[in-house]
Design brief:
Layout lengths: L9 H4 L5 E5 L16 H4 L7 E7 L8 E7 L2 E7 L7 H11 L24 E8 L10 E4 L18 H8 L8 H9 L2 H10 L6 E2 L3 E2 L6 E12 L5 H5 L4 H8 L4 E6 L11 H9 L4 E4 L2 E2 L2 H4 L6 E3 L1 E2 L8 E6 L3 E3 L2 E3 L4 E5 L2 E5 L4 H23 L15 H9 L4
Parallel strand pairs: 9-10, 10-11, 11-13, 12-14
Antiparallel strand pairs: 1-2, 3-4, 3-5, 5-6, 7-19, 8-13, 9-15, 9-18, 16-17, 18-19
Helix pairs in contact: 5-11, 6-11
């Protein structure tokens, strides 16, 4: 801040700012539980929140035309601009000044774009901020090496504590994964039967309509990571579509056992995934990709190990119709709402979304339904009528039980 500021309007807020610089807003996730939002323990340690390297004069930059880039061990993990901020800098200043008087030299941290990373002792984190309008205006890279603490934490006060939820939040992954036994059950049954079981539970809008596997015979079971595309707007193409954009961040975030699900609004006029990025997702351990838009390089995609389900094949790059916008949010794909962590199952009949909390129950009942249907098929082949047999009625239950005891599966 450049001057004493109290209860200003958003229009006045930016005028009170004198400098802009980079900050490394490091935090210790296993201390967050004790803070309840204050961040005193998780972000207040000695050596935390370094600033610099250079200060950019506020009068020489536009608040909506700044870029920020973060590197972890030399690899770009964040690359975004201030154009898409939900709350502009002037509004941040105004909001804070409502409750407290800001003084010259006060620092306001504005938040961070998607792609925040987990760092270990020995890792190097670099943060740089610059102007989109003047390449010469940059803070330079603020460079910090992560070091281990210098001793054990005292037994008094709040000790560090971590659980699966904390680790999931830190790594940006769903808090709970899919149980391997449930995954195996879902892999053994058809999407058609799963759909029937979901319908019994009142879930009729969980099919991702209009998508099909580029390689017939594909089977896919995994938990969802999400990516959202918005319609093309030319003035946002460079800031949102270039560099380490949301599409590439999603590819670099998807992990083992996960399915990348992309909302493309059913737009058939461009591709939303191609062979190189699909291959990268495969190498990272992803088990599938779903888009309700187009797929490029469809012939090559059909030869990869990773199943790709798409609406159409189209040769054009995504920039013809789309702006990559955000990752790991609730999306609408093919008419279905998909949340990160939902279970995604696909085969030649299509793709379904199963709430994780229902996955075990649905899987078990689907396995049983298909077992009954195998018995029913045998009876139909033997000449029996489907009346009372399909679905399995009470008169056929003793015969079914006898079939099970005799080794039927």
């Amino acid at each position: 801040m450049g001057r004493t500021t109290h209860r200003v309007t958003p229009e006045q807020g930016w005028a009170a700012v004198r400098w802009v610089t980079a900050g490394n807003d490091a935090g210790v996730y296993d201390m967050r539980y004790a803070d309840r939002g204050s961040n005193v323990r998780s972000k207040g340690g000695d050596g935390f929140t370094p600033l610099g390297v250079e200060l950019l004069p506020a009068e020489k930059v536009r608040p909506d035309r700044l870029w920020i880039r973060t590197y972890l061990n030399g690899e770009v993990v964040q690359d975004d601009t201030s154009e898409g901020l939900f709350f502009g800098f002037g509004q941040l200043v105004a909001d804070l000044s409502e409750m407290l008087t800001l003084q010259p030299g006060d620092v306001i941290l504005t938040g961070t774009p998607a792609g925040a990373s987990v760092a270990q002792p020995g890792d190097v984190v670099e943060v740089e901020v610059g102007s989109l309008d003047d390449p010469a205006l940059t803070t330079g890279r603020l460079r910090n090496r992560v070091v281990a603490g210098d001793g054990p934490v005292g037994t008094y006060g709040a000790p560090p504590k971590a659980d699966d939820t904390t680790r999931a939040e830190a790594y940006g992954q769903p808090a709970k994964g899919l149980d391997p036994a449930v995954r195996a059950q879902l892999s053994s049954v058809s999407v058609a039967t799963l759909s029937a079981q979901l319908r019994k539970r009142g879930l009729n809008t969980v099919s991702i309509d209009g998508v099909h596997p580029l390689r017939p015979g594909s089977k896919m079971v995994g938990t969802a990571r999400t990516l959202r595309y918005l319609p093309l707007r030319e003035d946002l193409s460079d800031s949102r579509g270039a560099g380490f954009n949301a599409q590439k961040r999603a590819i670099e975030a998807v992990g083992a056992g996960e399915v990348l699900v992309m909302e493309a609004r059913g737009e058939a006029g461009s591709g939303t995934i191609g062979d190189i990025l699909a291959l990268r997702a495969q190498v990272r351990g992803a088990v599938g990709i779903v888009t309700d838009g187009g797929a490029r390089d469809s012939a090559t995609l059909s030869t990869l190990d990773i199943p790709v389900f798409a609406g159409v094949a189209h040769p054009a790059v995504l920039g013809r119709r789309h702006v990559p916008w955000e990752t790991d949010v609730a999306i609408g794909c093919g008419g279905a709402l998909v949340e990160p962590g939902d279970v995604i199952v696909g085969d030649d009949d299509g793709v379904l979304v199963i709430p994780l909390a229902l996955a075990a129950e649905v899987a078990a009942d689907t396995v049983e339904q298909e077992r009954q249907e195998r018995f029913i098929v045998e009876q139909v082949q033997a000449g029996n009528s489907v009346k009372g047999l399909y679905p399995l009625g009470k008169d056929w239950k003793p015969a079914y039980q006898q079939w099970l005891e005799g080794g039927g599966k």
